[in-house]
């Protein structure tokens, strides 16, 4: 089919005949192999649906060797992990809830055309390969990306268009509803975002029609499986032991630890009641979870009663403060109910930007990094940290995306910026708390962001019909676990900067999407204008005394070699002499960084002396580096020497050069002449220096 100016082609049954389903996807010159493979039966004792999604980036797809010593692809990049998460989110709800077989969706990037996104093609291929397989799946779903260049929407933009786009929106849809939204935007108004979402939804319907024709011709019959659903008879028996009103009383409290303790006591009663029924005991933990879930959903939907007693649009208690830590460059704490984030900002020279090796030739480095950590103690678990997992990388990327639109340009603020969110306590939407904390931390560090940014998450509980639903503002953990949606939105007063939507049902109607976006705006304005502005209203005018100082200057790019010198001798000499750090980019921008401002200014002066042409009449402070019978040579800059003839050493007659100067002496000299050969003639005579001063 023709899709946004390029041809989308699918090869079926050409490769991977032993997988459950495979589709060799082509879009422009981008090629991705998507496969779906499932185990024949569930693993013993498994009580969840074990879906895994992989997105494999191969450097041969862009004609490059992998970096590193081994010259082989290793750990998945952050982009690969984030892409796998975006694929997982719309796919997971469309598998049967009672299915327990292992399923692996694998996407192998074989060839990349920079104008045709391999990530988008992998999303489409995952849906189609699963639909073609014999694995139970309520698809197809399709995915479209929307950009906005010059105020106009662009469907499936190429990398060049993405680089100048004010929006990068990814929307997945089923035949009826939107099922996944991921967005980064430059303060896009809510109405414009909704328009873009439903433009993508309309394009998705065309793709779904194309997929349906392929599935009808090539799809396999779905295999049968043993359902893991809890029998209704067991629920009936459980309600005789633990009455519904007892479960309601146990779960409806605003303290997570108290709720867990209450449910634990009820669980013990149920285990004791069914201790002679081995079949019931085997599925009792899942049955208790389902009983608790049904209770919470009923109370929210029917009675509009939330577990902690809040109104449906009420935000939990908020707290915010800055400057918690004395020696870091910036710090802030944000707390919402039992969710608490501490954020620390670190500033560094531009040489510390993160180098990015990947398939995208337009993104080779990152100046701003947001990293998120989720230790076990934040939820009361004795769990050692083993480095960031996919969830941590995803949460960090979302908060990073939220702040990028308001960051100052490199010209305005020539620093690399690292923002780290440490989760102190977690009970719902730590990524949105990280957004708020990182915004305040950046302002406390003196980063001149354009506007404050805040974020909030809205939830959803649905009934049997599309019209029976309730949107919840600021969901806590229980409402996330037992609800149908986690709709996260960040933005400024003027518009949206990021969206991430996860759902557990088969899609959202337009009224739900619009209400969630409206509620999120109301909530983030409340947060920004309340506790955040009270803690810190605007970026500080000065940096922390512990932050590096940076001076920038521009030089002629043709002079870069003069500053660096042969084998780096000149620049290393300046660094050794002044103790600063110097970075030079290809366009001639020089960044000089250090903690002592006089050292920075001295280094800048040396560089200026190297790149500026020597002219008669200039006065320099130089060092005597060589002596001859006829005069002394003085170093004016690391790569420029001049000569003082013996007759110009003094107003008086000089018999020997060493009677006046010695090697290593610091002397004040005036440029008399630069001859046709470029030789510089100098004078130390006081009368010449006086003339210059008077002039």
From TrEMBL:
This is Polyribonucleotide nucleotidyltransferase. HAMAP family: PNPase. It is an enzyme of class 2 (transferase). It comes from Oribacterium sinus F0268. Residues 617-685 form the S1 motif domain. Its EC number is 2.7.7.8. It catalyses: RNA(n+1) + phosphate = RNA(n) + a ribonucleoside 5'-diphosphate. Its main location: cytoplasm. GO terms for cellular component: cytosol.
């Amino acid at each position: 089919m023709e899709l946004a100016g390029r041809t989308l082609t699918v090869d079926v049954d050409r490769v991977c005949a032993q997988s459950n389903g495979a589709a060799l996807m082509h879009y422009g010159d981008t090629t991705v192999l998507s496969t779906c493979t499932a185990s024949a039966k569930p693993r013993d004792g498994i009580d969840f649906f074990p879906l895994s999604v992989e997105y494999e980036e191969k450097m041969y797809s862009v004609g490059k060797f992998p970096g590193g010593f081994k010259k082989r692809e290793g750990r998945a990049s952050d982009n690969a992990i984030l892409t796998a998460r975006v694929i997982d989110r719309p796919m997971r709800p469309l598998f049967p809830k009672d299915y327990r077989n292992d399923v692996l969706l694998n996407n192998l990037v074989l060839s990349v055309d920079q104008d045709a996104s391999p990530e988008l093609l992998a999303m489409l291929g995952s849906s189609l390969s699963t639909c073609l397989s014999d694995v139970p799946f309520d698809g197809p779903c399709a995915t479209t990306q929307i950009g906005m260049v010059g105020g106009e929407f662009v469907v499936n933009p190429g990398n060049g268009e993405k680089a100048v786009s004010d929006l990068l929106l990814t929307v997945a849809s089923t035949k009826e509803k939107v099922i996944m939204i991921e967005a980064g935007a430059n303060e896009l108004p809510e109405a414009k975002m909704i328009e873009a979402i439903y433009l993508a939804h309309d394009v998705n319907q065309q793709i779904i029609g194309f997929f349906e024709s392929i599935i009808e011709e090539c799809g396999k019959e779905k295999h049968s499986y043993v359902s893991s659903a809890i029998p209704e008879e067991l629920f009936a028996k459980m309600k005789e032991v633990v009455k519904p009103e007892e479960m309601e009383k146990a779960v409806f409290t605003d303290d997570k630890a108290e709720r867990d303790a209450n449910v634990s006591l009820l669980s013990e009663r149920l285990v004791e009641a069914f201790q002679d029924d081995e079949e019931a005991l085997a599925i009792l933990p899942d049955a208790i979870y389902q009983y608790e879930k049904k209770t919470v959903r009923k109370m929210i939907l029917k009675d509009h009663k939330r577990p902690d007693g809040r109104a449906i649009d009420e935000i939990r208690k908020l707290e915010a403060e800055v400057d918690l830590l004395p020696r870091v460059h910036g710090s802030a704490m944000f707390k919402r109910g039992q969710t608490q984030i501490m954020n620390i900002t670190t500033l560094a020279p531009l040489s510390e930007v993160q180098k990015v090796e990947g398939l995208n030739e337009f993104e080779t480095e990152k100046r701003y990094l947001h990293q998120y950590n989720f230790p076990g103690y934040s939820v009361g678990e004795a769990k050692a940290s083993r480095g960031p997992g996919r969830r941590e990388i995803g949460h960090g990327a979302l908060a990073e995306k939220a702040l990028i639109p308001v960051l100052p340009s490199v010209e305005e603020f020539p620093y690399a910026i690292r923002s780290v969110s440490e989760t102190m306590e977690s009970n719902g939407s730590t990524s949105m708390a990280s957004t708020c904390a990182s915004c305040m931390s950046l302002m406390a560090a003196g980063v001149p962001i354009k506007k404050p940014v805040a974020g909030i998450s809205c939830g959803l509980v649905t009934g049997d019909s599309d019209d029976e639903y309730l949107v919840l503002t600021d969901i806590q953990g229980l409402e996330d676990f037992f609800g149908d949606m986690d709709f996260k939105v960040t933005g400024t007063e003027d518009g949206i900067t990021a969206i991430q939507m996860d759902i557990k049902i088969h899609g959202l109607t337009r009224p739900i999407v619009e209400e969630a976006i409206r509620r999120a705006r109301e909530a983030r304005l409340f947060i920004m204008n309340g506790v955040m502005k009270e803690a810190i209203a605007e970026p500080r005018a000065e940096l922390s005394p512990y932050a590096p100082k940076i001076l920038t200057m521009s030089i002629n790019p043709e002079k870069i070699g003069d500053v660096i010198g042969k084998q780096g001798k000149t620049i290393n000499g300046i660094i050794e002499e002044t103790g600063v750090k110097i970075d030079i980019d290809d366009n001639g921008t020089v960044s000089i960084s250090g903690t002592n401002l006089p050292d920075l200014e001295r280094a800048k002066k040396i560089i200026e002396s190297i790149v500026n042409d020597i002219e008669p009449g200039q006065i320099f402070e130089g060092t005597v580096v060589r002596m001859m019978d006829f005069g002394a040579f003085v170093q004016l800059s690391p790569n420029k020497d001049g000569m003082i003839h013996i007759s110009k050493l003094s107003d008086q007659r000089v018999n020997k050069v060493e009677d006046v100067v010695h090697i290593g002496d610091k002397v004040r000299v005036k440029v008399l002449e630069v001859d046709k050969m470029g030789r510089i003639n100098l004078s130390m005579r006081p009368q010449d220096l006086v003339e210059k001063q008077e002039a």
